[in-house]
Each structure stands twice: as structure tokens, then as C-alpha cells.
Amino acid sequence: MEDCIFCRIAAGEIPANIVYQDDRIIAFRDINPVSPTHLQIIPRKHIVTVADVSDADLPIIGEMVKVANRLAMSEGVAEKGYRLVINCGKESGQEVPHLHLHLLAGRRLGRMG
Ligand code: AMP
Ligand code: ZN
């Protein structure tokens, strides 16, 4: 996906503050953080929304959560707590059409919705 900003970050074509990467997952700091720790955990594979995750791709979700949990530890927020968010579609506020898991932490987070 040449015009996908997150594919381009994964390909190294756009700079990002990368905090983790392996052959399937990449994680980087959000460019416009809404909390002191705000990371994006994404699959390298271009999947548009969480609703587009096929049965074959389900393990990717598990890997994203595993990476998020590890990053919460390395960011020093695991004990106090953190929030993992996947927006899906227009009313959720999803802006980037490439599956991403937000890791939010570092302040008391308000109630959802
Ligand atoms: P969402 O609203 O769930 O689609 O979230 C998209 C997130 O991606 C927002 O929090 C943006 O700040 C973040 N974002 C957009 N472009 C970049 C970028 N180039 N590098 C890092 N984060 C980005
Ligand atoms: Zn993409």
C-alpha cells in the first residue's frame, strides 16, 4: 500500500520513533500523543480495520497485545496501568486506515465514550 502512512513507516520510508520491531509487528511513538505514554502497535501487513482481520490473521492480534504488554513494562507503566484501544470505522474516530493498537498511559485516563 504505497499511500498508507503506517505501511510507509513500517517500510522505513517515513521516519518514526520506533520502540519495537520484528518481522510481523512494529511499534512507534504517536506523533500527537494524548497521554505521556502513547504508542502505536501495528502489523506490518496492511489490514484496514480490526473488522477486516481474517481467521488466518487472528494470531496477529495476539502478537500486538503481547508486544503492547511488553512495552508497558519497558515504558514503566505496567504497574500503574494502561489502556489498549483499537478504533474501527468512522464513528470511533479511526483516522488511519491501517490496523493499529493504541497504548495509552502515564496519567489517569477518563471513562470511555
Ligand atoms: P486513529 O484515530 O485511531 O486512527 O489513530 C491514529 C493515530 O495515529 C493518531 O493518534 C495520530 O496521532 C497517529 N499518527 C498519525 N500519523 C502518525 C505518524 N506519522 N507517526 C506517528 N503517529 C501518527
Ligand atoms: Zn498500511
Protein architecture, described:
By secondary structure, the protein is α+β, with helices and mostly antiparallel strands. It has one domain (5-105): HIT-like (HIT family, subunit A). Helices cover 20% and strands 22% of the residues. A 5-stranded antiparallel beta sheet has the order 1-2-3-5-4, covered by helices on one side. It is globular, with a radius of gyration of 13 Å. Bound molecules: adenosine monophosphate and zinc ion.
How do the strands and helices of this protein lay out in sequence?
Layout: H1 5-10, E1 18-21, E2 25-29, E3 37-43, H2 58-74, E4 82-85, E5 101-105
Describe the structure in brief:
The chain has 113 residues and is of the alpha+beta class.
